Amino acid sequence: MSQEVPTHESQAWPEQGERLLARAWQRFAELDVNAVAASRQHVRLRTAVIVLSVLATLLAILASTFEGEADSPIARSLRAGLILTPIVGSVILAFANKFQQGERWLALRAGAEEILKEIYLYRTLLQGQTDRQQWLQERLIAIQRRVAESVGQALVLKPYTGKIPPYHSPGDPQSDAGFADLLADDYLRYRLEAQLQWHSKKVVSLDASYTRWQVAIFSFGGLGAFLAALAA
After folding, report:
1. Nearest by Cα to 150 from 158, 142, 161
2. Tens digits of residue pLDDT in 133-189
3. Segment 64-98, tens digit of pLDDT
4. d(CA 118, CA 132)
5. What is the pTM of this model?
6. Residue 149: CB atoms within 10 Å
7. How many other CB atoms sit within 10 Å of the CB of residue 206?
8. Closest CA to 24 of 154, 126, 149, 94
9. C-alpha Rg value of the chain to the nearest Å
10. Angle value at C-alpha 121, between 194 and 3, nearest 5 degrees
């Protein structure tokens, strides 16, 4: 059930239902892109704290090897680094906790996925319902209010200016155009199968990341034991 979707530059949406769906997709896209940005920032901050913790341990081991040369430039540099590294890590951690990047990401992601759920509910089970437009509009307002309350601060979002729907590929027959009502087979193809494919790829990516982190942990552990043996 394909349907040509007008772009932002074209004429106004011909029907109220399409305008409402366009607004719903816009809200979803805004929450989605901001959730991705908040998640990446959260991961970068936490990764920086972990790296600095490993660096502080390494500096402590190296500083102990130069304990007998307290006045040497290398020893002084190591002591300065050993002092500065935990301070920088504490500042980064305080920044992450202050702005609650983890909670913000979760709140934005939950809001985006809830709007997506309501869009598909509007296009499937609520077909033919005379009040479904009012229902969707009320749900959008309620979801945005809940996201703002969860974030616990002024909800300032980076605007989304891309295509609507955000992940539609016009040349792909398996891609959802986002506006037509859906039958059961359409829902399975556009909603469930797409989600299954995304999660399958994500599991593979996370498994590869887990392996890399395990290798890094064992490598730094071996390096720390080697340096400690040299200092003995």
Report:
1. 142
2. 999 999 999 999 999 888 866 677 888 998 999 988 888 888 889 999 999 898 888
3. 777 666 677 777 787 788 888 888 878 877 776 76
4. 11
5. 0.75
6. 10
7. 10
8. 126
9. 26
10. 65
Contact 174, 189 (CB under 8 A): yes
Token code pair at residue 224 = 């720390």
Provide DSSP, the chain.
---PPP-TTSSPPSSHHHHHHHHHHHHHHHHHHHHHHHHHHHHHHHHHHHHHHHHHHHHHHHHHHTTT-TTSHHHHHHHHHHHHHHHHHHHHHHHHHHHTHHHHHHHHHHHHHHHHHHHHHHHTTTTT-TTHHHHHHHHHHHHHHHHHHHHTS----PPP-S-SSTT--TT-TTS--SSS---HHHHIIIIIHHHHHHHHHHHHHHHHHHHHHHHHHHHHHHHHHHHHHHH-
Which residues lie below 8 Å from residue 210, measured CB to CB, with a gap of 6+?
A: none
- Residue 89 corresponds to which tokens in the numbers above? 């890590």
- Residues contacting residue 109 through CB under 8 Å, at least 6 positions apart: 31, 32, 35, 39
The answer to whether 109 and 39 are in contact (CB under 8 A) is yes
